[in-house]
């Protein structure tokens, strides 16, 4: 696995539908940064969400406040700027604001609704406020600092993240909204769903845009009296912290049973900078263990920074594509983004039914090999290819790498699989795309062989 993916998934472990091995990720065990400054973090007004107002005005019942994704997000010019830090390509800007998670008859929307339904019917006496129309542009403060993600964390690097300016970006996870909702004090419990963006490789289970759902629950102050003022190990060893972790686990186990029927599950310890203790949950699906979510007891410094230091609670985040791929047996993540009637016509609000694959058109394979410069960033290459050929690139894989000791240079060879989901590709059109790539790739400082 290439380095940038390796480190990115360790911070944002769960959202990738593919089965990665996370347990060996180096940054899982990065110690928490010292001396985190407590402050009331400033949220950039320009990127604050128009949904906050719409969510309060569209109260539908006593249990749920629902919003719909504002169409203002479906405007590529919001994401493309001449700022020197902007690295959002037009083909990514064009994906924002599609609102797949709020479409009632789209697999992503169906799974989201099922999760909300579970929380609305829980008998824990808690009302989970619903947010599903947050602005996908967030500040580095919201996405990282408020969550104790240190400034040098690789997940913040432009090789992994789409920056709109130097201080604003396309959110890499829905956790980016935790702090603002905690700080607003509007709800003691909430669910927040949305599209998230990460620069990544391409294959049947990786796509640079996908969806997450975040959940947060704060506990009543009276229940936490015994742990008042406790911090660090004293807090995590307390019976109150353990009670929160137990409630978190049983709530999420119930959610899995609601989605999958009674299913085998296993918990393991994890590391996220914003929760401690942290856990991951895996479920057994067709004989394999699949990671479905990350969660934990909210770190007291995260609560402090949101001016909620008097409260304690839990949080979790899950990837909607992975759940939908399992539930609907959808074999390729790119399908979620297609408008092809053979796909979208198969799904109905509230119904989980197996996807019936339609015929696959034949693939066309092309290889490209080049000498790489010292500062070569693989994601730049993947993205350039996607910028040229778009979604007809089904897969890119590095098939050969060697170093010529005399030249002191390393060569990499990639195989690109081109395949359209709705027509046959001609060799000529693919050759033209590949030729364009061979020319443009030199801009990355590589030397095509
Ligand atoms: N934001 C994490 C990710 O993208 C998921 C996550 C983990 C969210 C733990 C949480 C949490 O709220 O407590 O992988």
TrEMBL record:
Region forming the signal peptide: 1-21
Main location group: mitochondrion
Subcellular location(s) of the protein: Mitochondrion matrix
Compositionally skewed regions (Low complexity) per UniProt: 46-65
EC code(s) of this entry: 6.1.1.20
Gene Ontology CC terms: mitochondrial matrix
Region ranges (Disordered): 44-65
Domain annotation FDX-ACB: ranges: 359-449
Catalytic activity, as annotated: tRNA(Phe) + L-phenylalanine + ATP = L-phenylalanyl-tRNA(Phe) + AMP + diphosphate + H(+)
An individual GO BP term: translation
Keyword Ligase belongs to the record: yes
Name of the top EC class for this enzyme: ligase
PANTHER family from the UniProt entry: PHENYLALANINE--TRNA LIGASE, MITOCHONDRIAL (PTHR11538:SF41), PHENYLALANYL-TRNA SYNTHETASE (PTHR11538)
Annotated family: Belongs to the class-II aminoacyl-tRNA synthetase family.
Protein name: phenylalanine--tRNA ligase
């Amino acid at each position: 696995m290439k380095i940038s993916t390796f480190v990115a998934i360790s911070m944002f472990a769960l959202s990738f539908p593919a089965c990665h091995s996370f347990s060996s990720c180096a940054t899982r065990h990065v110690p928490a940064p010292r001396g985190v400054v407590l402050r009331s973090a400033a949220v950039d007004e320009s990127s604050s969400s128009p949904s906050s107002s719409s969510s309060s005005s569209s109260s539908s019942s006593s249990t749920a406040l629902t919003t719909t994704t504002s169409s203002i997000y479906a405007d590529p010019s919001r994401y493309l700027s001449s700022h020197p830090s902007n690295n959002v390509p037009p083909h990514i800007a064009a994906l924002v604001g599609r609102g797949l998670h709020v479409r009632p008859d789209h697999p992503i929307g169906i799974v989201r609704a099922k999760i909300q339904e579970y929380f609305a019917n829980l008998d824990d006496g808690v009302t989970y406020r619903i947010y599903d129309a947050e602005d996908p542009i967030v500040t580095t403060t919201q996405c990282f600092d408020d969550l104790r993600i240190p400034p040098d964390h690789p997940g913040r690097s432009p090789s992994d993240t789409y920056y709109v300016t130097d201080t604003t970006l396309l959110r890499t996870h829905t956790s980016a909204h935790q702090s603002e909702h905690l700080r607003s004090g509007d709800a003691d419990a909430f669910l927040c769903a949305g599209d998230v963006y990460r620069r990544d490789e391409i294959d049947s289970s990786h796509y640079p845009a996908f969806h997450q759902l975040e959940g947060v629950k704060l506990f009543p102050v009276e229940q936490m009296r015994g742990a008042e003022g406790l911090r660090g190990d004293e807090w995590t060893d307390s019976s109150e912290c353990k009670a929160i972790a137990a409630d978190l686990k049983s709530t999420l186990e119930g959610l899995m049973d609601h989605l999958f029927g009674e299913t085998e599950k296993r918990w393991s310890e994890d590391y996220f900078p914003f929760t401690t203790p942290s856990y991951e949950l895996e479920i057994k699906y067709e004989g394999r263990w699949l990671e479905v979510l990350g969660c934990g007891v909210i770190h007291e410094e995260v609560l402090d920074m949101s001016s909620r230091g008097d409260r304690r609670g839990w949080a979790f985040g899950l990837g909607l594509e992975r759940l939908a791929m399992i539930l609907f047996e959808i074999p390729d993540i790119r399908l979620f983004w297609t408008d092809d009637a053979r796909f979208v016509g198969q799904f109905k609000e509230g119904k989980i039914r197996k996807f019936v694959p339609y015929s696959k058109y034949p693939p066309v394979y092309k290889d490209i090999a080049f000498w790489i410069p010292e500062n070569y960033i693989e994601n730049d290459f993947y993205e350039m290819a996607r910028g040229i050929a778009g979604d007809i690139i089904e897969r890119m894989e590095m098939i050969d790498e060697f170093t010529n000791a005399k030249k002191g240079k390393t060569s990499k060879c990639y195989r690109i699989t081109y395949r359209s989901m709705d027509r046959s590709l001609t060799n000529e059109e693919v050759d033209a795309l590949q030729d364009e790539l061979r020319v443009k790739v030199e801009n990355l400082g590589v030397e095509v062989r």
